[in-house]
Amino acid sequence: MPKTLPITGVIASLLLLAACKSDEDVAPRRKFISFKMDDAVVLSEQTHRAYYAPGILTDTDPDNDHAELLITGYSYQKDVINIRVTTPLPAITPGVYRNTTPGTAMLMEMNPSFELITADDQFGELTVTIHELKDSVVVGQFNGTLVSLDDGSLKQIRDGYFKVVYRNYP
Questions:
Q1: Which of 15, 34, 137, 162 has the most beta carbons within 10 angstroms of its beta carbon?
Q2: Is the dihedral of CA 98, 101, 102, 104 positive or negative?
Q3: CA–CA dist 62, 112 (Å, integer)
Q4: Are the beta carbons of 34 and 71 closer than 8 angstroms?
């Protein structure tokens, strides 16, 4: 009888290992946009969307040869968050993107005041680092200074991170 317990344990362990999937087959457990703005944490979980549009080089239209990634969400305070990364290249790859490239921007609409704050190619500063963009998941970080379009005040964005599932947008 004592020998059946270890054999049963080994068989149970093997069955459990056989039933497990690799991490590559599993969608990310936590999807979020998170950052600090003026020392307050802003968090968007499960209430966001992301779309990726690679450049289209197969036609004669040069206006669609660039790639764009749009990440949108709502904070728990119902602030609207938009982060857009644009490159003149046909694909977004891991690397650093700044708002000095037209199209790369962050825009927020604050609730309940409807104040717009932004960093785009005309106002503020924004740096977005894409760490990974594969298997419909994009992971990155961001920071910068947003400018209020209402009164010109500055909002510091620090320790920004995102991990979201994106959809390809043709």
A1: 162
A2: negative
A3: 40
A4: no
Question: Would residue 159 be called left, alpha or beta, if left means φ above 0 and alpha means ψ between -120 and 50 degrees?
Answer: left
Query: What length does the chain have?
Result: 170
Taking the mean position of all CA atoms in its chain, how far away is CA 5?
49
User: Would you state the structure tokens that stand for residue 138, as one six-digit string?
Assistant: 């994009």
Segments of the chain assigned E as strands: 32-37, 40-45, 48-53, 67-74, 80-87, 95-98, 105-109, 116-119, 125-134, 137-148, 154-165, 167-168
The sign of the torsion formed by the CA atoms of 122, 50, 66, 25 equals positive
Say what the pTM is: 0.78
Looking at 9-23, 80-94, 128-142, which range is the least confident one? 9-23
